[in-house]
Amino acid sequence: MKYDELNERVKKAYVRVRNLDDYYWNLEDGRIIGIHKKSELNVRIKFAANREEAEKISKNKEGEGIDIIVVPEKNTFYLYNGAFILSSKFLRSTLIDINDHIIWHGFKVIEDKGKLIQEDFYEYLGGLLINHLRNSMLNGQDYLLWQFYKCEECGKYVDIDSVARHMKREHGIDVANRSEEIYEVFELNFVKGKIFNKFGKEVKEEQFSREAKEFIKEMFKNVTPVSEEEFEE
Ligand SMILES: [Zn+2]
């Protein structure tokens, strides 16, 4: 297949997304496959003649990955059967939002042909993404996604930057001796001034370590006034 042979709708959608370099782009007959570079998560961009057809297509699950179905109707954006059904003008911003919700959450050093290599783990926080879209919440302004480590010694959550200090000071453990770490990703919600896990359940203050409490206090102190002003309008 040659580029010239692609159908017009595929070309018009492709031109909107091809400079998003967080993805590899594969053009197939009648659809576009975006492969998120870090996580290898697939985003399948399909095309429908109208909403009805899009909803029919959404029922056809192809396994892991995200389905986006582009319809010609203007100002369309909704979720159906877990698929995004949208007008092409929302395609780019949706792909940026998806990228914002794929978060690094740990690593493991593995042996491969005599070499030691680091394998990284990423998590797609689809539930939070939908929540953020519904409430028109902006990344960096209304919320931030942040990694926390659940300490195996005291059971408290420690923010990622304080893990080494916490393990040393509280438990005498040197993290340099560890070859793997897994984090949980939480949402710092500046609108509510609360912290939520990936399922949208609140993580209470007493569940955090001393260092994490300080970190959270600092984060909320800096950002909350901006959000409050925004919400008074
Ligand atoms: Zn601890």
List keywords for this structure.
Nucleoside Triphosphate Pyrophosphohydrolase, binds zinc ion, 30% helix, single chain, alpha+beta, 233 residues, 33% strand, 4-stranded antiparallel beta sheet, 2 domains, globular, Trna Endonuclease, Chain: A, domain 1
Helix-strand layout with pairing:
Blueprint: H1 8-17, E1 23-28, E2 31-36, E3 42-47, H2 51-58, E4 66-71, E5 77-80, E6 83-87, H3 91-100, E7 102-112, E8 115-124, H4 126-134, E9 143-150, E10 157-159, H5 163-171, E11 180-182, E12 184-189, E13 194-196, H6 210-232
Parallel strand pairs: 3-4, 4-6
Antiparallel strand pairs: 1-2, 2-3, 5-6, 7-8, 7-11, 9-10, 9-12, 12-13
Bound molecules: zinc ion.
Zinc ion is lined by residues 151, 153-154, 156, 166, 170-171, 209.
Question: How would you sum up this structure, described in words?
Answer:
The chain has 233 residues and is α+β, with helices and mostly antiparallel strands. The protein has 2 domains: 98 residues, Trna Endonuclease, Chain: A, domain 1; 131 residues, TBP-interacting protein, C-terminal domain (Nucleoside Triphosphate Pyrophosphohydrolase, Alpha-Beta Complex), CATH 3.90.79. The strands form 3 sheets. Strands 1-2-3-4-6-5 form a 6-stranded mixed sheet, sandwiched between helices. The chain has a 4-stranded antiparallel sheet with strand order 10-9-12-13, covered by helices on one side. A 3-stranded antiparallel sheet has the order 8-7-11. Strand 5 and strand 6 form a beta hairpin. The longest helix is centred in the C-terminal third of the chain and has 23 residues. Bound molecules: zinc ion.
